[in-house]
């Protein structure tokens, strides 16, 4: 059963090794454990629903609890404390596009706010109901999860919007195909959610971001259905797919998603290489991207992340041996781990690997074979479980991310890390901060920063610590040529920073579009656009 | 000097070989030559300008003639007949974004229509002034043609919007870079025009379409400047670059273009392969695209185009020898020529070539080495000059294009060809029709069809023939899952078919955007959107 107050399935958990806790303790002090609320205590808080009865809508208390929050840190704290504040008045489970349209029409009649809901994995506050005079209906698409059509010749698959990662891949795999879209939230997040929030998968270097994979589909809006036909490319005016991508439930409800799929690759391997320094590593990964070496993924940890990963990896004896080996070959203190993958046919992969090796060796790269690469691949969806493990050990972890042009990557990365590392200095608290680049492009890179801090004495104080850190880093990003999100979307948490990026004219256009599709502001108000 | 009534420079021309004319004569009958008007006779028709004097605006008659028409077939016929109908009242040549904004403000004061003008190469009626009560100002960007900034680390170059292909490439080449965008119109078309009309270059397989190359920039609109910052990727809501791409001068005037550039490749080669049949060739090129073989271009001529190209190539003795060689190896009657290129470093190119050869040989491909590939590369911008050569020989040539998913490519291609081949049957006229696929994707392909027919006894009759053919083919495209344009844009000529593709909701959104940026319909009315 899915956790009601955290990530993933209750049966799955991650252990923090003892020396991992010691590592953190040395860095930021001993952890502090805040008390968790029980589900029963939360259920007791759920008020009566304000919605009239409707056959497609459940007003059951537990269903409402389970659809009230996403996976942002404020959501996490609210769930652990049992302090939800607001619940949706009901959750609808439509099974067809016609039922979505019926529910939208009903919402107009009943003057109800509607929140489209995919996998509930937002880390930016996309699906949280707000307090207000109007009742809130959460519209879960989980029953619309099937592969509806497969055009093998065109490599196009049509899905219901609620298919989550495993449902997408298993239905395609049965025919020999893959979408190749693997965000870290893959186990729970949905294809419709990926489109609505412009998601990026770990192997986007080969398969593309969701923008490249999304070929067309349907958006149900208050002013009618927007149908997007599929073309391999078109010069027929502005591309309207781009208004659905990133629409975050503000313009309409995605009722059908057509995606570009690939044949399952005959060969796939992941490698780990250690570079002697950040400067060399940064140049190496930029050159890999700009030379168009056909890799399927590349991820570069900075020195602190490399050290942290090795410390938290378990098997300290083996790690010590590895570090000795690396140091002998020139990658000692300050070394940075680069993980990369090749995916395709054997001939192509062999050529790509040869090219990558040649380039990386020129920058002092030390290869360790496929063992660490395999470990990365096996654990690729496990990171979100770490929050639970750290919480049990008395620590809070969150991540934030941006993307910027290469000429600004190092500078912005340092500014973001500094803003977090120094963010709680006034309270005398230390913050452990580390970063990797996980999506590289010819023009620049994403920057993905993790920060670990201790809870305050209570939940309110802990949330205040987070708010201070998040705001400091977000200001740095928005003020220094970073996008406010490379892969998580805007939601509520980033909405205040969006105008800095889109500008006055850009915001005016987005408001125009929202006004057109949803003239009464009934769809997910406050998300993406604050007003 | 640029031709005032046709394509390119007066000093450049193409000869139609004698046996080429004989080939056409056998297929569609003897050519007919219509009389050309003189520039003097056209200059005499230019009416007085209705514009008040302005320092940035020329009202000189020849300047107005030279900015009155693009390069569509109706434009061609109008220019050859000397029947322009409408001229712009003046042409402005701003040198800065501030001057563009000044001219827009002036246009509001003076109640003047404004037509943004890049290279004047539109083949879909993008820049033609229309008769009306309001004066028309054509706004040429030709003086804003410089490389303004180069961020080598991020591989980003900033250009004025009026830089044409040679200006873009020569300024980048001086620093060791290329944009890699080579549409057939490259000699004259501009970077701003490419963005405004969603252009695609011949090597888009490597470098991407202009959508992938356009990183940001500025659009001057009647409601203010829309500034698009550069990010390698972003999940921060809808991507507003996509509203500038394909805006066709309806939403604003592009005043600055930032593009993603590449290092000049160390190695580039083009090859020609002949496949025994269209069925085999079609499957082979689809597999090349779907297997992601890292080619830089791939172009497949159907059997009629292959035959036509060999017939028009010159050197009939050599061609006969080539055909004998091909036939002995299994590519005889019905053979199809596939041209492809590899661009990059030598290691990468060798691997790509090996992979492509293996795949193509599996489909009966017969390699002819690099000679024909070289010929393609040398003549790649020469095709537009062929219209002049055919006109001199008494024939009219035009092309049209679309794109569709692979499962529909063969069917749509046949329907388009049939609609043209049979299009003048009632008049007893034959039309010579042939096709190639020039831009291939995992999902589908562009379809580029050329048609040659004889002029009627006069210009009006010739235009009527063209209109009948164009309308028949456009209806077939719009009614059979094709986009109305893969690379030429909408303009006026395709605007009537756009609603079939965008749908009611899509058209409503586009009208909303036009209304927002240009509330009084002062920018290029009738282009993209008919109303």
TrEMBL record, chains A, B:
It comes from the Bacteria. Keywords: FAD, Flavoprotein. The keyword Flavoprotein applies. Residues 84-264 form the FAD-binding PCMH-type domain. The keyword Membrane does not apply. Belongs to the FAD-binding oxidoreductase/transferase type 4 family. This is FAD-binding oxidoreductase. It comes from Zestomonas insulae. The lineage of its organism: Bacteria, Pseudomonadati, Pseudomonadota, Gammaproteobacteria, Pseudomonadales.
